[in-house]
Amino acid sequence: MKNKKPFKIHRSILKVLLGLVIVMVIGAVVFLCLQISGKNRLYNKSANKKPDLASANISWAEESVEGSTQEGGQPTQPILIVEEDSENWEEGDLRYKGVHYRYNAEMLTFLFLGIDKDGTVKEAKNGIDGGQSDAIFLLALNPKTKEASLVAINRDTMTDIDIYDKKGSFLLTTKAQLTLQHGYGDGKEQSCERTLASVSKLMYNLPIHGYCAINYGAIPKINDAVGGVTLTALEDVKDNGKLVFQEGKQVHLKGKNAVTYLRTRDTTKEGSASKRLERQKQYLLAYADTAKQAIKKDVTLMVTLYNTIKKYMVTDITVDEVSYFSTQVADYKFDDKHIYSVPGEIKMGEKFEEFYVDDQGLYELILKVFYDVIED
Fold first, then answer.
1. In terms of Cα–Cα distance, which of 82, 89, 91, 9 is closest to 50?
2. Is the pLDDT of residue 32 over 50?
C-alpha cells in the first residue's frame, strides 16, 4: 500500500499540470482567434478603401501634365497627375511634384475624440446636446514600417458639418467648427459616426477603421493605469485663477491633474485652443512611451484598460480588435517626428476663433503619412 501512495500523489499532480496545460492551450487558441478576427474586422470596417485625392477642389491640382506654365516652360503651380500610361501605374496612384505615390492599403487609422463631459457616457437629452469634441486626433499605424503616426486636428477647423434640430431631423450642411459636429447627435454612437464622416471628408475621404470617444472623466483612470505620466509643462496653466503648472517645470501627472493639463485653457487669450492642442500632443507622446513599457510587461493591459473605462467611452473597436491592436502597438516606433498637425491659420470669427486649413499643406501631409513612394 505504501508503494501505491506516491503514485497517487504523482498522478494528482499530473492531472493538475495537464489541466493547466489544457487551459493555457485553450487560452492561447482563443487569444489567437481574437487576433485574427480583430485584424479582419478592422480592415473591413472603413466605408472607403482609399482617399479620393483626385477629387480635391483646389486650384493648384491639375489632372494632367498640361498644367499652366510661366515663361521658360516652368509650371506656376505644383502639378498633380492622377492618370499615367505606365506598367507600374495602378488605379488611385498619383504623381505629385514628380514623385509617384500609392495609397498604403495596409494602414490602420483610428479617430480619437476627447469629449467635454466629466461623467460616464449618457444619451443626450436632445439632438443638439451630444457634447463637443475638444480633442481630435487620428492615429495611423503602418504595419510595413512598424511606425505609428499621430495627426492632430484643431477643434476649431472650419469644415462641412451636418446640422440637426432637437428632434434629430436633418436641417442642412454648413461650414462650422469641427468640434460642433459631435454635439449634433445622441452623444454616443450616432455622434461619433457623424464626426468620423466629417473628419474623413475633411481628409479627402480617408479610410478610418474605428473611433473611440472618451469623456474627460476617464482620463485619471487611463493616466494612472500606467503609473502616471512625467513631462515638462509647455506653458503656465491655471485652474480657477490658481497656477497649477508652471512653464518649464517637470511634473508627474496623476489623477485629476492630468485632466487639468489636458483640458484647461485661457479662452481670453488668442490661440488658446492651439496651445492646448500642443499640450495634448505632448502628453500623448509621453503616455505612449510609458504605456509601451507597461504593455511589454503585461500584454493584457489594453484589454484590462478597455474594460475599466468602457463606461466613459464610446467606441466601435471591439475586444477582439483591441486584442489584435495591443499585440501590434508595443513594437511600433512612435516619437515626436511622427506627430503632425493639420496645417492652417487661426482667424477670429464673429464670436469664436476659426481655424482654416492650408489645403496644399494638408494634401502633402496625407501623402507623407498615408502613401508609399513608388520607384519607377
1. 91
2. no
Residues 6+ apart with CB under 8 A from 159: 175, 176, 178, 198, 201, 202, 357
The type of residue at 219 is I
Which residues does residue 176 pair with via DSSP β-bridges, in sequence order? 159
CA pair distance 233, 329, nearest whole angstrom: 27
- What does the CA dihedral 198, 200, 205, 208 come to, rounded to 10 degrees? -150
Ordered structural domains, the chain, with CATH: 46-373 (3.40.630.190)
Q: pLDDT tens digits for 280-297?
A: 989 988 998 888 888 778
CB 191 within 8 A of CB 182: yes
Mean pLDDT of the chain: 82
Q: Cell 480633442 appears where?
A: 135
Residues of 329-343 as b/e, b for ≥16 C-beta within 10 angstroms?
A: bbebebeeebbbbbe
* Rounded Cα distance, 170 and 163, in Å: 6
